[in-house]
Please model this.
Amino acid sequence: IRGNAEEKEQEQPQQAESARPNKKGPNFMERKMMQAMGLNNVAYDQSYSFTSSMVMDIVTIDSVSNKDNMRYTTLFSPEDKNFALIFEKVNPETGKPEKGTMIFDMKNYAMLILSEENGERSGMAMAMPRDSVDAQNEAMDIAAEEVNEEYPEDFVHPMYVPTGKSKTIAGYRCDEYVYKNEEGTINLWITKDNKVNLSKAYGQMQGFQALASGGWAYGMGTVMEMMFNDNSGASTQMLVKDVLSDSPMNLDLSSYQIIGVGGGE
Model:
């Protein structure tokens, strides 16, 4: 009897431990079942902090005049490779606002996709292949070095023609440049103000290296507005609404139900 009592005493802590799912991960069989369904533990942080943000509106109109409006907010820290994209738009069918968030966690090799609907917050944490991320990180480091290259103040890329027009966008003076080819016309409004120089930040962001090392502006400055009109009648407009270099923001994931996809042991 005493032996049974001792066994029960030893079992009690284990049972108490298993009653706390947040403290203990799935067991071996549960992990195998999750893997069979493509669901795995993907490491990510419970919160992400950023120091800066940029807000832009993108309006696209196709050749049959269908219009789509989207607001993009980029959260970043110039010295950090992690960044986030927030997408906001109005659903044309329901008329209700929709919002989605993507977090690129370069430390944990993870991409998180978050959404909120009817007060319920959910998301997916997707594992990014380490070899591809390492290659991206190397490219990002190269791009970050390339943006240190200085251009003359009056530099104009030979592809673009200055129009002589200027205007203020989000508080910054911008000059207009035009580029034409067989597909259509691109109008760029560019500022040379160093306060809004995002090239270093872009050099840190996965997928944005083209903007860091050249992109639309090709060393002429930072693009604050872009209008592309193609010969089919379709058009795309990108307009920067705000750039805040000192706007700390924290994304807290504790209230989201997040499923891991693509990770492994």
In short: Residues 49 and 250 are 4 Å apart (CA to CA). The helical segments are 2-18, 28-36, 130-146, 199-204, 209-212.
